[in-house]
């Protein structure tokens, strides 16, 4: 039951304001002992020519209070206290009957959304920064999908660019074939780093790299074959990580895919009179927008990152006819996306407004910014494995008799990492700490998963509830607060979409787990006062499980039945 609507209805019956307007004005009081909804009377004061305090008191006398425990006027506010029994019954019955679908809606129906995320670079490690993009993108996809949006999941692989010329050059000089087969990315990284070190001493290497990239762009056989091999080896590694994370894509069209689509873009830019010569390079001037020029072609004629992004944006519009096109990429690329979107706009593509760069902060481990250049990279696969191992130790300590320890450690270990990434506002940096991340009683993944497993164990012990349930038994403050939180799930999802911010769901599920633990620590379920109370509390436990599971799923985290 939508109590906010009901409040609006009851007020609108008595005043000269349309119900939508009334609903907009309704507030949630800062403290729960002030009621569940409040209507401020300031707005009415002008038309009614009365003091807001008087209006509140008069309204209270007239209003129909059915469905509410009480209605009180407090100063200029009219405070509504909802009928706890009606609220508990309607909320919990809805959750249980909808199950996995609870929280869903179809507000996005008929709207296509392109969600680009992860987008690692071929021949380079899938590092902890790429997980940031992967976790946010996967979660945004799930969140929007739950509201009926038609999402396509895009992995814009970094598989083109001058660095591949350098890599080919390095390959020819220094590769260790055996190592390449065994640990492809580590070997490719080794020779790439070596290339940079050597090029510092001998700058002619850079020219050689450029030459090889040129040959690659021309489609020469030898270079193309090598590039294909790098790509295949890399994808094999990336897929291992995606499998661990349960992440999938509908398209892996990377930068190279746009190779034959760029000429048309360059031509269009030229035709529209936007292309300017700048020291031999072709650029779009953006000084009017306080930005450096967007480089379209380098002086040697090679296309660059931005050109490929322009082609990709246009291809996506044509192919997916998107309502929104989302790019989950680190904040350090903010300027790049501003330049690309502004160029599209200058080209006359109004839909450039629907392209959104969803940025995120940096990931740090003991104070080091992670970069591939110097080779001090943390491979994501190693990070996930370490998290699983560490979780295993904790499980062995806490519950050594647990049957499927391995699987639990995997879900909890990986869940802990994802949770850490999605816990705070995405623009904030993350500083990793194992202790914090794996703790069972902070605001962590394991804490939420543990709460779920605890709730599940109660349900296993006490079995299913049958027959009528007396929801008036759920009248304590803790129970009512938890039910209110459970009821707000869809609201949180809508808010998360509005802000394109998975942390809203993470915070939400922390609230659910906290609310559940408060209730659970205060009231016994097994030894409830009477059978009726026990039944009602079991319904609350059951509903909590549904909501935690659905919310974690939106984050890309699996639940465990026992831990
Ligand atoms: N491959 C890039 C990187 O690892 C990210 C690609 C971002 N997406 C885009 N459309 N430019 O930094």
Automatic annotation (TrEMBL):
Residue span, Arginyl tRNA synthetase N-terminal domain: 1-82
InterPro entries: aa-tRNA-synth_I_CS, Arg-tRNA-ligase, Arg-tRNA-synth_N, Arg-tRNA-synth_N_sf, ArgRS_core, DALR_anticod-bd, Rossmann-like_a/b/a_fold, tRNAsynth_Ia_anticodon-bd
Record has Ligase as a keyword: yes
Protein name (database record): Arginine--tRNA ligase
Family: Belongs to the class-I aminoacyl-tRNA synthetase family.
Coiled-coil boundaries: 385-412
Compartments (UniProt record): Cytoplasm
Domain of life: Bacteria
Catalytic activity: tRNA(Arg) + L-arginine + ATP = L-arginyl-tRNA(Arg) + AMP + diphosphate
Subunit architecture: Monomer.
Keywords, ordered alphabetically: Aminoacyl-tRNA synthetase, ATP-binding, Coiled coil, Cytoplasm, Ligase, Nucleotide-binding, Protein biosynthesis
Organism: Clostridium malenominatum
Any one Gene Ontology molecular-function term assigned to this protein's record: ligase activity
PROSITE patterns: AA_TRNA_LIGASE_I (PS00178)
Motif 'HIGH' region mapped to chain: 120-130
Pfam families tied to this protein: Arg_tRNA_synt_N, DALR_1, tRNA-synt_1d
All copies of domain DALR anticodon binding, residue ranges: 448-563
EC number: 6.1.1.19
């Amino acid at each position: 039951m939508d109590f906010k609507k009901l409040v609006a209805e009851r007020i609108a019956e008595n005043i000269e304001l349309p119900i939508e307007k009334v609903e907009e004005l309704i507030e949630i009081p800062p403290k729960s002992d002030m009621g569940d909804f409040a209507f401020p009377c300031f707005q009415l004061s002008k038309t009614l020519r009365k003091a807001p305090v008087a209006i509140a008191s008069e309204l209270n006398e007239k209003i129909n209070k059915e469905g509410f425990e009480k209605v009180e006027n407090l100063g200029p506010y009219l405070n509504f206290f909802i009928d706890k029994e009606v609220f508990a019954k309607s909320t919990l019955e809805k959750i249980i009957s909808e199950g996995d679908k609870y929280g869903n809606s179809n507000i996005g129906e008929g709207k296509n959304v392109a969600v680009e995320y992860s987008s690692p670079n071929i021949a380079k490690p899938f590092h902890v920064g790429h997980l940031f993009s992967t976790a946010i993108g996967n979660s945004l996809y799930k969140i929007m999908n739950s509201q009926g949006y038609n999402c396509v999941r895009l992995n814009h692989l970094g598989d083109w660019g001058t660095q591949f010329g350098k890599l080919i050059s390095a390959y020819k000089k220094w590769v260790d074939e055996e190592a390449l087969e065994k640990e492809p990315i580590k070997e490719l990284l080794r020779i790439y780093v070596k290339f940079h070190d050597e090029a510092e001493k001998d700058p002619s290497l850079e020219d050689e790299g450029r030459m090889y990239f040129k040959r690659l762009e021309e489609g020469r056989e030898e270079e193309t074959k090598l590039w294909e091999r790098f790509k295949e080896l890399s994808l094999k590694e990336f897929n291992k990580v995606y499998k661990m994370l349960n992440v999938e894509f509908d398209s892996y069209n990377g930068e190279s895919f746009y190779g034959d689509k760029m000429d048309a873009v360059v031509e269009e830019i030229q035709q529209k009179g936007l292309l300017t010569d700048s020291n031999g390079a072709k650029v779009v001037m953006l000084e009017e927008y306080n930005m450096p020029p967007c480089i379209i072609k380098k002086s040697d004629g090679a296309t660059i990152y931005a050109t490929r992004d322009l082609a990709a944006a246009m291809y996506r519009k044509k192919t997916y006819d998107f309502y929104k096109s989302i790019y989950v990429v680190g904040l350090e690329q903010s300027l790049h996306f501003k330049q690309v979107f502004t160029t599209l706009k200058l080209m006359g593509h109004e839909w450039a407004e629907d392209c959104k760069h969803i940025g995120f902060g940096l990931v740090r481990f003991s104070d080091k910014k992670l970069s591939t250049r110097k080779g001090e990279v943390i491979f994501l696969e190693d990070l996930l494995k370490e998290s699983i191992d560490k979780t295993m130790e904790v499980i062995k300590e806490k519950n050594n008799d647990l049957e499927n320890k391995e699987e639990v450690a995997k879900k909890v270990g990986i869940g802990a990492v994802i949770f850490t990434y999605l816990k705070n506002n995405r623009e904030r940096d993350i500083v990793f700490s194992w202790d914090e991340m794996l703790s069972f009683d902070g605001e962590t993944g394991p804490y939420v998963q543990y709460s779920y497993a605890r709730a599940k164990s109660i349900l296993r012990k006490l079995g299913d509830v049958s027959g009528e349930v007396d929801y008036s038994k759920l009248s304590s403050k803790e129970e009512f607060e938890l039910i209110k939180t459970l009821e707000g799930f869809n609201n949180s999802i809508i808010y998360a979409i509005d802000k394109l911010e998975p942390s809203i769901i993470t915070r939400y599920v922390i609230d659910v787990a906290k609310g559940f633990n408060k209730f659970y620590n205060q009231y016994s379920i097994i030894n409830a006062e009477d059978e009726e109370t026990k039944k009602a509390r079991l319904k609350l436990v059951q509903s909590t499980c549904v909501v935690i599971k659905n919310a974690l799923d939106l984050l890309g985290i699996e639940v465990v039945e026992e831990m």
